[in-house]
Design brief:
By secondary structure, the protein is an alpha/beta fold. It contains 15 helices and 7 strands. It folds into 2 domains: 221 residues, Vaccinia Virus protein VP39 (Rossmann fold), CATH 3.40.50.150; 99 residues, Orthogonal Bundle (DNA polymerase, domain 1), CATH 1.10.150.170. It has a 7-stranded mixed beta sheet, sandwiched between helices.
Length: 346
């Protein structure tokens, strides 16, 4: 789920270029930018999408990031754009509350770039990747429950469910059993310790991804409640966008893309097609979004050659109708729910 949520750091925060925004031209095209428009960037990162939006005259952007490092690096852009960039150190699930506090409404567009950023992956001290020796952390906000807290205190059932449902790890039960057994001898403290355990449980094959890849993904999603945050942010964008406002979402993994796809299906009426044909079924709610064009949009061969992290990117977009927002209804909340004690790992 790696991604390049940013732009060259020489533009954003000084120093050498490190980050390339994925599907940038496609996202900007989907937003239908207009001069003087108000936009939401729910995943600021290094400011790649935000800067492209602010390149249009008199546009304003309310941008969010839960990572204090990204907020600190973005202060240079806040100064550069002289009031046109409003940068919030907050989770993008709080976008409605923050916009209300700032007196903002009627957004012309919103964009989300979902998942962990390349900046976070590349810092060993953040503990997101087993490529580097570091603390078993994985917290985007650098606060709250860490990955070490989960593997050292959670029940075997909870760990197995996290690895199976969020990491799609088929050997989740065996891994969880080994974690609970070994942590009684010595608690897990580093990324390497956990990765080595998983490597012993599931020996890797030449050419395959590292055996710990799926487990690390599952833990990271659980630590940061990424799927729950995504669902709340989608509902938030629905509430903030004015009629004809555009929502553009880039995801990098099937779990996230499935939620975005199902959200747009539910909100455009496509997810209710069968119910409309059955007598006695409830009438589906009116559509809050209209979908246009073939979706998802994927990166071109040229982009994936220049930025391999774009290979798994999927862009989905919709145009807001004038129907009142539906909010966090049960159908939407169900998209991010974690089935309890149902892992089928071997």
């Amino acid at each position: 789920m790696e991604q390049g949520r940013g732009i060259e750091l020489s533009q954003a925060a000084g120093g050498p270029a490190r980050h390339i925004p994925v599907l940038l031209s496609e996202v900007i095209s989907a937003l239908h930018l207009r001069a003087g428009g108000l936009y939401l960037d729910g995943t600021f990162g290094a400011g790649g999408y935000t800067q492209a939006i602010l390149a249009v005259p008199d546009t304003r952007v309310l941008a969010f990031d839960r990572d204090p490092d990204a907020i600190a690096a973005g202060q240079e852009l806040v100064a550069k754009y002289d009031g046109r960039l409003m940068l919030e150190h907050a989770q993008f699930s709080t976008c409605v509350e923050v916009a209300a506090r700032r007196g903002l409404s009627g957004f012309d567009g919103a964009t989300f770039d979902i998942g962990v950023s390349s900046m976070q992956l590349d810092q060993a001290a953040r503990g997101f990747s087993f490529r580097f020796e570091g603390p078993l952390d994985m917290r985007m906000s650098q606060s709250g429950r860490s990955a070490a807290d989960i593997v050292n205190t959670a029940s075997e059932e909870e760990i197995a469910d996290i690895l199976y449902h969020y990491g799609e790890e088929r050997a989740s039960r065996r891994i969880a059993r080994a974690i609970v057994h070994d942590r009684e001898i010595k608690p897990y403290e580093t990324t390497r310790e956990l990765a080595e355990l998983i490597g012993r449980i599931i020996p890797g094959k030449p050419g395959d991804i590292h055996p710990a890849t799926r487990s690390f993904q599952g833990l990271r999603i659980a630590v940061n409640d990424e799927l729950g945050e995504l669902v709340q942010a989608l509902a938030g964008a629905e509430a903030l966008l004015k009629p004809d406002g555009q929502l553009a979402v880039v995801s990098f993994h099937s779990l996230e893309d499935r939620i975005v796809k199902q959200f747009f299906a539910l909100r455009s009426g496509r997810g209710q097609a069968r119910s409309r044909l059955l007598p006695g079924e409830p009438v589906p709610p009116p559509s809050t979004f209209m979908l246009e064009g073939k979706q998802p949009v994927v990166a071109s061969d040229e982009e994936t050659k220049a930025n391999p992290r774009a290979r798994s990117a999927r862009l989905r977009a919709g145009r807001r109708t004038d129907v009142a927002p539906l909010g966090l209804d049960p159908a939407l909340l169900a998209l991010a729910s974690l089935p309890v004690h149902s892992a089928k790992g071997r």
